[in-house]
Structures are given as structure tokens and as C-alpha cells.
Amino acid sequence: MKNLKNKTCFITGAASGIGKAFSLALAEEGMNLYITDIDIQNLKLTKKEAEKFGTNIYEAKCDVADINDWERSASDFYSKFNTLDLLINNAGIAIGGDLLALTLQEWQKVMNVNLWSVIYSLKTFLPKLIERRSGHIVNVASGAGIVPSAGPLPYITSKFAVIGLSEALFGQLNSYGINVSVITPSYIKTNIYQKAKIKYPQKLINEIGMERLDEISASLLKKMGQNAVSPERAVKKYIKGIKNDQLYIYDSKAILRVLSLKGNNPQQYETFLQNSFKQNEDMIKNHFLEFGIDIDTYYY
Ligand SMILES: NC(=O)c1ccc[n+]([C@@H]2O[C@H](COP(=O)([O-])OP(=O)(O)OC[C@H]3O[C@@H](n4cnc5c(N)ncnc54)[C@H](O)[C@@H]3O)[C@@H](O)[C@H]2O)c1
Predict the structure, then answer these.
(1) What integer is the mean pLDDT of 86-115?
(2) Which of 109, 190, 249 for mutating ligand 1's site (highest number of atoms within 8 Å of CB)?
(3) 285 CA to centre of own chain
(4) For residue 89, pLDDT beyond 90
(5) Whose CA is nearest to atom 41 of ligand 1?
(6) Catalytic residue selected from 155, 193, 248, 298
(7) Topology classification of domain 8-200+228-256
(8) Any ligand 1 atom below 6 A from CB of 85
């Protein structure tokens, strides 16, 4: 989709981070937007800022994990706009930490918000896109959906699935005139890290206390975020990728290097996976040691 001017877009997770930056940049490109989120207060702020560019901006609550919200907001969308040109499935969450402490409900929550949201989105919008033989679907996955070197396991699982689904759709929907892209953000300065729920072994919670553990984790995430890219800068690359109708839209070449390692030298890739998990564990361990806590003694 070379020219975005006067086209329409439906986007999820537009109250914060990448979704907000996307909304503002697309409005600046001249797009008419239907922005959604569960955080209505901040969504209204996005709307207000986006309106400065002079296009039509509508906002609505859409919990992406609830098919009823999809159906309601899609019907409202079509009452405002005749056609949908760009559908951006962006909303996402992370829950991670101790594998054994993660509950099934937490696994399900991440899968519902990160993966089922995309399935609901397709179920809701695809019939009309196919009927019209045009449109562009953009799924925001993650670098963690290509290289599972660090990060929460439910998150990685959901993002791998979104990438597989996007690749398959890219092939399958081509004959219906529909483009599909998948964005694989690396490390972008947004609120997702502060909002992420981190699970700890019960013994650690009992001895240190949840509040203190959250403080320590927040300071670790802050340290890690020092090299993160701003969402505004990342979104410029993403829009370029959308205009070029690219399947994969990356913001970091590091992922490509690991992908080629996986293809060219599977044994080295195995070593890479083990080493990077170990490096991640060591970084967390050293951070906790700075606060006088040897977390190794709390894990199995
Ligand atoms: N920030 C990064 O470094 C990074 C890296 C890789 C992938 N991503 C992906 O980018 C996307 C956007 O995340 P972000 O970094 O901007 O985070 P963010 O937390 O700043 O924004 C996410 C938005 O999604 C909304 N949201 C959460 N649950 C929702 C639900 N059930 N229904 C509707 N909206 C919901 C939140 O209210 C929030 O406004 C996510 O899919 C995330 O996994 C981010």
C-alpha cells in the first residue's frame, strides 16, 4: 500500500507505546483511524493528539481477548467508514518469570491477548476484506517470536504462533488481493515492561516480599531499557515496510543473523540458544546480588 492518504485503519492497543506512535504517524500520513484499547483514558489522549493532523479519528473500547468486543467495534467501524484498508493487530501483554510458578490461567491470558486476538480479528474482518479483494493485515509479533533467546515463555509461545499464522496468511490471502505483514519489534521503549507480571518462586516471595521483588525487577528492566529504541523511531521503519508490502518488518538486523545461523549451522544455533538463556539468567542473578539476594538458592 504505497499511499496511505485518505485510507482507513483499525488498530488495537492504541493507548500506549507502539500503538499510540503508529496512530499518530498514520494520522500524519493522512489516514482516517478507528483506534481501540481497554485503557480508555489514555486512548482519548491518543485521539486528541491524532486529531491535530486533520483526519477523522474515532475511538472505542475493544478488549482484544473478547470476541463480542470485536464484533461490536467492527460493526461500529463500518457504520463510520465504508471500507477497511489497514488492520493493525498490535495489543499485547507479557507475563513471565519462574516457569513453575506460572499458572494455567496466566498462560491462557497471554495466549488470549496475544494470539486469540489475531484469530478474533480475522474472524471479524476477513470476510469483508475477501469480498472486497483488498486490504492489508499487519500483526505485531516480536523478535521473541523468531529467536526465543530470552523472554517470558508464554509470550514467546504466543508470538511464534502469530508469526506462523502471518506467514501462512501471507501465502493464502495473496490470491484474494490481501497483503499480510508481521512486525518483529526488538526492544522498544514502551510501558509493556513496567506492566509485565513477573512470577517468582513462593519461597522467594515469602522471604523477600512481593513489593521488594517488584522494585528490584523494575530497576532491572529500567537498566535493560537504556538502549531501547523510541516507539516513534521504530514506527517510521514499520510504516516503510507496510508501504513496501513486506511480509517481515524488522527493526533490528540482529534477528536476521540468528535466523541464518539456524538455517546454516543448526548445532551452533543450539549452542546459541543455551548460551543466551544462560546469559539472561546470569544478568538477573547478578542484578539480584546487587540487592544482597542470591536467587539461585530459591530455585529448583
Ligand atoms: N516494547 C517492545 O520492546 C516490544 C517488543 C516486541 C514486541 N512488542 C509488541 O508490541 C505490541 C505493543 O506493545 P507496546 O510495547 O507498545 O506495549 P504497551 O504496554 O505500551 O502498549 C500495549 C497496549 O495494549 C493494550 N492492551 C493490553 N491488553 C489489551 C486487551 N486485552 N485488549 C485491548 N488492548 C489491550 C494496553 O492497554 C496498551 O495500551 C505488543 O503486541 C507487544 O508484544 C513490543
Answers:
(1) 97
(2) 190
(3) 27
(4) yes
(5) 92
(6) 155
(7) Rossmann fold (3.40.50)
(8) no
The number of residues in the chain equals 300
**pLDDT tens readout for residues 245-273:** 999 999 988 888 999 999 999 999 999 99
Q: 249: Cβ–Cβ under 8 A, 6 or more apart, which residues? A: 138, 181, 182, 183, 184, 237, 238, 241, 242
38 CB under 6 A from ligand 1?
yes
Cite the DSSP H helix spans in the chain: 17-28, 40-51, 67-80, 104-111, 117-132, 153-173, 192-195, 202-208, 210-224, 231-243, 254-264, 266-290
Q: Give distance in angstroms: CA of 43 to centre of ligand 1.
A: 13
The whole-number pLDDT of residue 222 equals 85
DSSP secondary structure string for all residues of 228-254: PBPHHHHHHHHHHHHHTT-SEEES-TH
> Is 63 a pocket residue for ligand 1 (Cβ < 6 Å)?
yes
Mean pLDDT, residues 20-33: 98
In this prediction, residue 225 has a pLDDT band, given cuts at 50, 70 and 90, of: confident
The DSSP bridge pattern shows strands 57-61 and 86-89 to be: unpaired
- Tell me if residue 200 is catalytic: no
How many A from CA of 93 to the centre of ligand 1? 6
Ligand 1 centroid from CA 46, angstroms: 14
Q: Is pLDDT at 91 greater than 90 in this prediction?
A: yes
Instruction: Pull the grid cell for residue 233.
Output: 523511531
